[in-house]
Amino acid sequence: MTAKTLFDKIWDQHLVEDLGDGVQLLHVDRHLMHELSGPRGQLEMAQRSLKTRNPELTIGSMDHVVSTAPGAKGGNAPWADQMIESFRSESRKAGVKIYDIGQDGQGIVHVVGPELGFTLPGATLLCGDSHTCTHGALGALAWGIGTSELTHVLATQTIVQQRPKTMRVRFDGQPGRAITAKDMILALIGKIGTAGGVGYAVEYAGEAIRALEMEGRLTVCNLSIELGAKIGMIAPDEKTYAYLNGRCHAPKGALWDQALAHWRTLASDAGAQFDLEHSIDCTLLAPQITWGTSPEDVIGIDGTIPGNKPEALAYMGLAAGTPIAGTKVDRVFIGSCTNSRLPDLRAAAQIVRGRKVAQHVKAWVVPGSWRIKQDAEAEGLHQVFLEAGFEWREAGCSMCVGLNGDLVEPQARCVSTSNRNFVGRQGPQARTHLASPAMAAAAAIAGEITDVRNF
Amino acid sequence: MNKFQTLTAVAAPFPKKNVDTDLIIRIERCTGMPREELGRYAFEMARYLPGGAENPEFVLNQPRYRGAQILVCGEFFGTGSSREVAVWALASLGVRCLIAPSFGQIFFNNCFQNGLLPITLPAPTVASLAQRAAAPDAGPFTVDLAAQTINGSVHFEIAPRGKKMLLEGLDEIALTLAMEPKIAAFQAADRQRRPWIYP
C-alpha cells in the first residue's frame, strides 16, 4: 500500500464523485456560519427556493458585526442589528442551531468550533471565512469559501474542489523563552512569503509543533491563509483527543471509542511523499513583529526595518534602517481568531500583572468566546487587565475585522495579535503591527514596540 | 451565470503585488449592498483621495483606462479575506478578466462562480503584457477562452472544468443537485463507517 499523507487520507475519505482533471466533489461533514457571510448565502438560498440539505451539520455563531463594547448585546449600528436578526431568523427557519449573543458557545467561529467539539479530526469543515484553516489544528480538513460555495454547501452538503498539492513544514528544535506559536508561523511567512503556499495544503510537523498545546496549534494553522494556503493541518495526537473529550458536540461513549480508533489512523504514514518541504529552526527565533502592510513583512524584534518596500513604509510612517524596537504605539489589541484563547490571555496577563498601560496607549483585550471570557474571569485575569488600564470587552472579531465600531484611528499605530496588517484593515489609514499576545502586552506597558524577553 | 467566450477590451496595467480583497472592497461595503452598486466602491482606498475626489494617479481613473475590462495584475492578486463581494465589485465595475502570476485561492474560485476569467501566467509573460497595455499605442486586448489565447499569440492554461463553466455559463449548484443520488449514497455508506459525524 502506498504511504499517504494526512491530507490525502482525509480528502479521499470524503470523495463523493470524481469530476475529472483533479476536480472532485467532496462531502462536507461540518459547516460553520456567522452573521456576516451567512446572511448572503441564506438570501441566495431563498431567492433560488433551495432547502438546506443537512441543517444538523451546520452551526452558527455571532462574531463579525457584534459590538464588543463592555455589556453590548448586539451590533453598534442599525444595519448590524438587521444582519444579526436576519441571520437569527433565517437560521431558525432552516433548522440551523445558532449560538447567540450572551450564550455559552457564542464567539469567533474559529474559536468556538474547536471549543464546542464541533471541529473533529478527520472531518471536512468549511466556513465562509478565510481563517477556516484554523480548524486544521485538530486534524480536520478545513478551508474558507465564498458566498457561492457557501450556498453550494447549504444546498448540497458537498463542495467541488480542485485537489491541491501537499507541502510539509517542519518546525525543528525547541523555541527559546517567550517564543510562541505566533512567532513560529510569522517566521515561516517571512521566510517563504505570502504566496509561498499558493496551491498547497500544508501539514505542520516537527518537535516544536508536537510540543504546542491545542491553542498554539490553532494559532499556527490560523495563519496558513497568510501563507497563501487555504488549508493548514496538524496530525491529531493524544493532546488533541484530551482537548476534545467531553466537549458538547464531540462524540460520547461507544461513538467516542469508535471515532478515536479512526482518528489514530489519520497521521501521515512514514515515507509519505509531499510535493514540497520547508523547515524552520525554532532555536534561532526571536519574537516576531511585522513592519509593513503584508504579513510577510516581518522581522525579529532585534531587527532593523528593511528598505525594500518604500510604499509600505510610507503608509506605516516608518524609516528604513531604524530598529523596530522603540517605535511608539497608540493602540494595543489582544484578540481575534488568531490569539484570543485562554492561554493567550494568560500569557498577556503574566506580562501585565502589577504594571500599568502607558498613558498614551489605549489597550483592549477581547476574548475569543463567551466561554473564554467566563473562564478568564474565574481565574481573575480580567482584574489583572482592568487594574493595568486595559479594556476588558465582550467576545467577537472586534478590531481584527473593524466592522463593529472597533477601529484604529487614521495614522494611529496598533500592535495587534490578529492576522492581517493590510492597508486599512483595522480602519482607514490605520497602521498595524502583528505580534504575539505577550509582545502586544509588553508594547502596551512600554508604550512602544519592545522585546518581551526584557520583561 | 454570465458566459465568458471571447472578450475584446481595454486592458489596464495594475502591477501592484499582494492586492488583497480588503483593498478591492472595504469591509463596510460587504454588509448587504446590491451587487450592481458595488462597482462604485471597488478599490475605494486607492481610487479616491481622502476628501472623496478621484485620485488621478490611480490607473482606472486615467482616461485611457476608464472602463477597462481586463486588468493585468501583480503577483498574488486577491489575497486575504474570502469575501466574494470583491469579485462582485470588480464585475460591477465592468471587469471580466484578470491576468496575474498568481491569485489568492479563495478569490480565484470565487471568480469562476461569477463569470470572471482569472488567467495565471508566468511573471515575465504578465510583465510583458502589462508593458504592452501601458504602451502609448496600446490597442484593446482580445482574450479567447476557447482557444486559450491572449491577442492570438499568448497561450494560457486553465483547468478544464473552470473553462467549461465559464464558456457555458454553468451553475455549479444546479450541476451538483443533479448528483443527489450519489450524495445520498455516500452519506448512507459513511453513516456506517463514521457514525459519529452524523448527530
State Rg of chain B.
19 Å
Q: CATH architecture of the largest domain in chain A, please? A: 2-Layer Sandwich
User: Main beta sheet of chain A, described?
Assistant: 5 strands, parallel
| Total number of distinct structural domains of chain A | 2
Structural class of chain B: alpha/beta
Report the β-strand fraction of chain B as a percent range: 5-15%
How many helical stretches of chain B? Answer: 8
Q: Largest sheet of chain B, described in full? A: 4 strands, antiparallel
- Which oligomeric form is depicted? heterodimer
Fraction of residues in H or I helices of chain A: 25-40%
Using the coordinates shown, work out and report the CATH topology of the domain at 10-139 in chain B: Aconitase, domain 4
**Which chain pair shows the most residues in contact?**
A-B, 71 and 51 residues
CATH class of the domain at 10-139 in chain B: Alpha Beta
Under CATH, the topology of the largest domain in chain A can be stated as Aconitase, domain 3
CATH superfamily of the domain at 10-139 in chain B: Aconitase, domain 4
Instruction: Report helical residue fraction of chain B.
Output: 25-40%
Low-confidence regions of chain B:
none
- Give the overall shape of chain B: globular
What order do the helices and strands come in, and which of them pair?
The complex is a heterodimer of chains A (455) and B (199).
Chain A: H1 6-13, E1 15-20, E2 23-27, E3 30-34, H2 38-47, E4 58-61, H3 78-94, E5 97-99, H4 109-115, E6 124-127, E7 141-144, H5 147-156, E8 158-162, E9 165-172, H6 181-192, E10 200-205, H7 207-211, H8 214-222, E11 231-233, H9 238-244, H10 253-263, E12 276-281, E13 288-290, E14 298-300, H11 310-316, E15 331-334, H12 342-352, E16 362-365, H13 370-378, H14 381-388, E17 391-392, E18 413-416, E19 431-434, H15 437-446
Parallel strand pairs in A: 3-4, 3-6, 4-5, 6-7, 9-10, 9-12, 10-11, 15-16, 15-18, 16-17, 18-19
Antiparallel strand pairs in A: 1-2, 2-8, 13-14
Helix pairs in contact in A: 2-5, 6-8, 12-14, 12-15
Chain B: E1 6-9, E2 11-14, H1 21-24, H2 44-47, E3 70-73, H3 85-93, E4 97-100, H4 105-112, E5 117-120, H5 123-134, E6 141-144, E7 149-150, E8 154-155, H6 160-168, H7 172-177, H8 180-193
Parallel strand pairs in B: 2-3, 3-4, 4-5
Antiparallel strand pairs in B: 1-6, 6-7, 7-8
